[in-house]
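Usage

Read records sequentially. Each one opens with the input sequence:
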Amino acid sequence: MSGDAPLSAAEKTLSVLEALADHSRIADIADASGLPKPTVHRILQTLVRRGFARADGQGGYLGGARILSLAGRFLQRLDVAEHVHPVLRDLQGRTGWTVHLALLSGDEAVYVAKLEGVRPYHLASRVGMSLRLHCTSIGKAILAAMPDDEVRALVRRTGLPARTERTITDEGTLLGALADVRKRGYAEDHEENETGVRAVGAAVFDHSGEVIGGVSTAALVDLAETPGDLPELVVRAAADVSRALGAY
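and closes with the structure output:
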């Protein structure tokens, strides 16, 4: 196709998606994609409706949860992240618990890998499923890697809905819990997201030191023995995953 040939609707949409990875303002997305602002705005509205983008509340746009949801499903099928899976398999083997890797997507995270534990039960989590940050071990590990003002802004956007009777629903209590996570280096979920399930999680970082997700181990409260070095194993695995994904 010649350089003067008009772009198809699919090409325009893909250009906006690619620009959205680096820009949030419509003017910047228009410059990066080479498309008129009205066209960019129309495409973004469609992406928002389909969950591939979301408004940031300040006149800009961010990637939506469905991007990572699809990416997670492709990772499961294509095993693109096989360089991370040995770390997750080692953690599963050392703990016997179900192991998760989730990546941050806007104001939530999305599971991109799951290895079942050795016990004869399966947790409800699945690759492609999104998870709240305030009530999960991965989520709290991610939040603890953010400044408190960013956490407050996120809470204003999302609220702190109760998932169980143990869920933290007060901002001050959450900030106190995150301070403890920073001191320990890992987060815990004591039936805060799902009754009967406990988990330990630690944050994953990219090459720039930005938090991008987390690793967790999870098990049923009544059926799993807790290895004495469980937190250390999770923290070590998260650090290994960070290095595999480009962190120094």
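Summary fields computed downstream for this record:
- The chain has a mean pLDDT of 89.
- The chain has two domains: 9-63, 65-244.
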